[in-house]
Amino acid sequence: MQESKSWSTTTRYFVLILVLGSFIWLAVSAKDLIGPLAISALLAYVLNPLVIWVSKNSRLTRPMAVLLVFVLSFAALITAGALIAPLIPAQISILAQQLETITLQVQTLLLTPIAIFNMQIPLDVLLANWPEITQGFTRPDLLINVIAATSQNLVWVLVVVFTTYYLLLDWARLRDWLIGMVPEPYAPDMRHLYVDMRRVWNRYFAGQLRLMFIIGLLTGLAATAMGLPGAFAFAVLAGLFDIFLSVGPLIVTVIAGIVAFVAGSTYLPLPNFWFMVLVVVVFSAIQLLENAWLRPRIMSERLRLHPAVVFVAVVSSLAMAGILTALIIVPLIGSAMVVGRYLYCKILDIEPWPEEKEEEKQGELHRADDGAG
After folding, report:
1. Of 181, 197, 227, which marks where a domain is finished?
2. Do the Cβ atoms of 194 and 277 come closer than 8 Å?
3. Is the pTM value of this prediction over 0.70?
4. Distance of CA 272 to the CA centre of its chain
5. Structurally, how many domains does the chain consist of?
6. Helices (H), 136-264
7. 213: pLDDT confidence band, cut at 50, 70 and 90?
8. Could you tell me if 53 and 134 lie in one domain?
9. How far is residue 240's CA from residue 220's CA, in Å, rounded to a whole number?
């Protein structure tokens, strides 16, 4: 059989540029798919240790363990929803009554004009014209857009569910396939890079769990000190919702403020309104402490990044790209540093993993000494 003709250097570079351009075009075209795929990867990463534990401690195969964990996880979510759902109507009724009370108080406050630079702003006029101001929000076209967005979100939920399942089921084969695409001389480097990046993500999640515990503990202690009803529940909620960065803590703060206004403190002699203000301020201060000091310190210690890099990366991602990007931006930077260090060493012809080479040399010396003895 005739030997395949080798490509010229020009052809190789042309094909390489063409392939890279195609990948960039595909990534830009499928940018809406990146978010759901990232969520699926995170869910699979979190559930994978449970799948491994079930598989090791039972006679189930990997596919059966994945199916069991997957079904039980969604059954737990459905059960939690079924337990919470009966409580919603009563809570909505109570909340509606409280909102009516709050509305009356706000109307009373709005009767007093606000003075800004000697200018009187009659807020009662604004309140009287509020229906005309907000009537644009109830246009039929906006309602149709909301329905369409809801249907689209349902499709993305299904994408996340099935992608998570298949990642759990076939991640090992997918990983080996990706490594197998690399030319054989560079396959060991690819495996080493994979291990280093996996270590980065493990450290990130360990740091995130530590943050969740600290925030839950601080929130529980603060809620108990203020006499907020359900202090333990708010500690658990604050810890769990902390993974959603600013959005999760905001939800917890809003719920805590409503409870504070409705129930008041169990022992502080404060009116309910001012107790609500106190609770919101304290909860916000805890989040400020986390975002400005705790998160940068813990993540920088875990991933060997400067605290300022962590702080700027998270805040910038929240402002420009949303919560999902902010959630994974820190381990992405850590992974990029792993790849960047490898490329830097290869460009300068330096050993990328000198510590392992030193260990190999020490092992050879020990073996030589043992042989001489």
Report:
1. 181
2. no
3. no
4. 34
5. 2
6. 140-180, 187-226, 231-241, 247-263
7. very high
8. yes
9. 13
**Of residues 83 and 372, which shows the higher confidence score?**
83
Q: How far is the C-alpha of 252 from the C-alpha of 225, rounded, in Å?
A: 17
Burial class (CB in 10 A: 0-12, 13-18, 19+), 334: buried
Identify the sign of the CA torsion 265, 270, 272, 278: negative
Q: Is 23 among the domain residues?
A: no
Residue 222: the pLDDT is 93
Q: Are 323 and 245 in contact (CB under 8 A)?
A: yes
Nearest to 324 by CA among 238, 245, 254: 245
At 96 the pLDDT is 61
On whether both 256 and 323 belong to a single domain, the answer is yes
Q: What percent of the chain has pLDDT over 90?
A: 6
Question: What does the pLDDT average to over 85-103?
Answer: 62
Are 119 and 169 contained in the same domain? Answer: yes
Same domain membership, residue 244 and residue 107: no
115 sits in which H/E element = strand 114-116
Q: Are residues 223 and 348 in the same domain?
A: yes
Q: How far apart are CA 200 and CA 206, in angstroms?
A: 10
The answer to whether 240 touches 225, Cβ cutoff 8 Å, is: no
* 257 shares its domain with 111: no
Q: Which domain holds residue 338?
A: 187-366
Last residue of a domain, one of 181, 213, 243: 181
Token duo for residue 184: 């054989």
Whether residue 243 sits in one domain with residue 133: no
* Distance, CA of 220 to CA of 104 (rounded, Å): 32
Mean pLDDT, the chain, integer? 76
CA atoms of 79 and 330, how far apart (whole Å): 33
Q: Please give the structure tokens belonging to residue 166.
A: 């298949």
The answer, yes or no, to whether residue 33 has pLDDT greater than 60, is yes
Report if residue 140 sits inside a domain.
yes
Highest mean pLDDT among 50-59, 96-105, 141-150, 309-318: 50-59
Regarding whether 272 and 140 lie in a shared domain, the answer is no
